[in-house]
Design a protein that fits this description.
about 575 residues; mainly alpha; COBRA1
């Protein structure tokens, strides 16, 4: 049987008798019992004292197989311990010479399940397994699967395609995990996509597995970075940039200096990581980051491609954008213009580098994107004027009102603001973060004033998953406003529904929001929304699933027919008014 053949694989080459030899002996002999006894003597444990002990075990009904198996297991354990000890003792070349000799003697038994762990252990401790042996392992699926990651690294470093096959499912899993968080049904302003600290994120399964696969091997690290760059170019998916930073910082946590010292982004990423942890770029770290950017020497511009990818990580963009909004508010209090703040200009420079990552890597032109002067001289002062409008309105509300009545909140948006959001990527990113900021402050007036500007934005950024994930979370703070027709019309008809039919992700985010807040929405509005959000034939499974969940929830809220008939009939027919559902 094939199983039997596997069991004895390689014994003949070493001159050790196996099952086949016994079968042959018994086939060609006249006295089978004598032949068996002779075979046992020749191939048993050659220890004189055992001659008397074995019959004693026979009396106790212990099969010889059980005895030999236990001796074998014991010896194998001792041998494994010895191999691990040899790998640590004596001079380097001597210890590896011993292991190489041992591998040479034992490799023919590598397919024998009982001996395989020993052969694998010897290979694991060899920093350079002979090429011929590696090829044999690689060619055999089972052997490849059984060998330690230390051996696989030696195989992978010269076989990019094979390494790619191992890494690819992990990268797919990583992207899926990120998307699952963005589309999670748990909506909250307290817990969102950006809540986990960098250290917590690095403990994720994919990052840990990749870290282990790379070990201290610079070549494998470079290959993974190459995969990430290629995938980022192919898909424009920014989560690959997050993984680029997480992987480097995971190796940093383990103090793998072999890799950290050769990655030119290491110190920059380390400093930025501390900012991401605090969700703010303070002055001291800003100086450090600026030093790294200013220190890019002539002839080394290619490092800008890597730095831009680190800055394109959504967690970095989030930190830079939040810091920008905070700086703008401080400048209002200080009566200072944006162009007079070096810290603010540095934040814009890094945002610009991050947002330009794809173009830079695609074009292979490694120079910092030029900052548009109007962003600093016109757009940011506009945002500051919105902050001033809020302060003025708040003060006006507190002043004793005269005959002319209270001053209304400004409702128009300067045309320039809308234009900037459509045409300038950095302006759009900062504008969106300003809108998230006012929503978090429960500033309904400012939110409704600026919302129309989001219908058309640069590259549809207002309909991107990260923005919609954060917006839906912050909208839970305005939950009581959902009972008002005007608010719902502006939010749903004026914004969300304008993109639902052409963008499936928007459809999903609206359904997520309604699943969470449906009990706050006026019944008539809810009914029209339910009709508008009905999936089409082209809709994906996720949309259908969410819609069904929402329909079930709404079904449960409807009053039962019994309750309706119990209402005493009145003489005059009255127009029916939808009853507000109980909370």
């Amino acid at each position: 049987a094939p199983g039997q053949a596997e069991m004895y694989a390689g014994l003949q080459e070493l001159g050790v008798a196996n099952g086949e030899d016994l079968k042959e002996t018994l086939t060609n002999c006249t006295e089978p019992l004598k032949a068996i006894e002779q075979f046992q003597t020749e191939n048993g444990v050659l220890l004189p004292s055992l001659q008397y002990a074995l019959p004693f075990l026979d009396l106790h009904g212990t099969p010889r197989l059980e005895f030999h198996q236990s001796v074998f297991d014991e010896l194998r354990e001792k041998l494994l311990e010895r191999v691990s000890a040899i790998a640590l003792e004596g001079k380097v070349e001597e210890r590896y010479k011993k292991l190489e000799d041992l591998l040479e003697k034992s490799f023919s038994l590598v397919k024998m399940p009982s001996i395989q762990p020993v052969v694998m252990c010897v290979m694991k401790h060899l920093p350079k397994v002979p090429e011929k042996k590696l090829k044999l392992v690689m060619a055999d699926k089972d052997l490849y699967k059984a060998c330690a990651v230390e051996v696989k690294r030696q195989i992978w470093q010269d076989n990019q395609a094979l390494f790619g096959d191992e890494v690819s499912p992990l990268l797919k899993q990583y992207i899926l995990e990120k998307e699952n968080i963005l589309f999670s049904n748990d909506i909250s302003f307290l817990q969102n996509f950006f809540s986990p600290s960098p250290k917590t994120r690095r403990q994720g399964e994919v990052v840990q597995k990749l870290t282990q696969m790379i070990g201290k091997n610079v070549k494998l690290y470079d290959m993974v970075l190459q995969f990430l760059r290629t995938l980022f170019l192919r898909t424009r998916n920014v989560h690959y940039c997050t993984l680029r930073a997480e992987l480097l910082m995971s190796l940093h946590d383990l103090e793998i200096s072999e890799i950290c010292t050769v990655d030119p982004c290491h110190k920059f990423t380390w400093c930025l990581d501390a900012c991401i942890r605090e969700k703010f770029v303070d002055n001291k770290r800003a100086r450090e980051l600026q030093g790294f950017l200013d220190g890019v020497k002539k002839g080394q511009e290619q490092v800008l491609g890597d730095l831009s990818m680190i800055l394109c990580d959504p967690f970095a963009i989030n930190t830079l954008a939040l810091s920008t909004i905070r700086h703008l508010q401080d400048l209002v209090g200080q009566d200072t213009l944006p162009r007079e703040s070096p810290d603010l200009l540095l934040l814009l420079r890094m945002l610009s580098l991050g947002q330009g990552a794809w173009d830079m890597i695609d074009s292979q032109i490694f120079k910092e994107p030029k900052m548009e002067a109007e962003l600093i001289t016109r757009f940011l002062p506009l945002l500051m004027s919105f902050v001033v409008d809020d302060h003025t309105f708040t003060v006006d509300q507190k002043l004793p009102s005269e005959e002319k009545g209270p001053i209304p909140y400004p409702s128009t948006i300067p045309e320039a603001f809308t234009k900037f959001l459509q045409e300038n990527r950095i302006a759009c990113e900062i504008g969106l973060y300003y809108i998230l900021h006012i929503t978090k402050q429960r500033n309904k007036n400012a939110f409704l004033r600026l919302l129309p500007a989001l219908v058309e934005t640069f590259s549809d950024l207002a309909f991107s998953d990260i923005f919609l994930h954060l917006l839906t979370g912050n909208l839970t703070l305005l939950s009581d406003e959902f009972a008002l027709e005007e608010f719902c019309t502006s939010l749903f008809d004026g914004f969300f529904l304008t993109a639902c039919s052409r963008k499936e992700n928007v459809h999903r985010h609206v359904l997520r929001l309604l699943l969470h807040l449906h009990h706050k929405v006026a019944p008539a509005k809810l009914e029209s929304l339910q009709k508008a959000l009905e999936p089409t034939k082209q809709s994906g499974e996720a949309v259908k699933e969410l819609y069904n969940q929402l329909s079930e929830k709404l079904e449960l809220r409807k009053p039962s027919p019994a309750e309706v008939t119990e209402t005493p009939a009145m003489e005059l027919p009255l127009p029916t008014v939808p009853t507000p559902a109980s909370r």
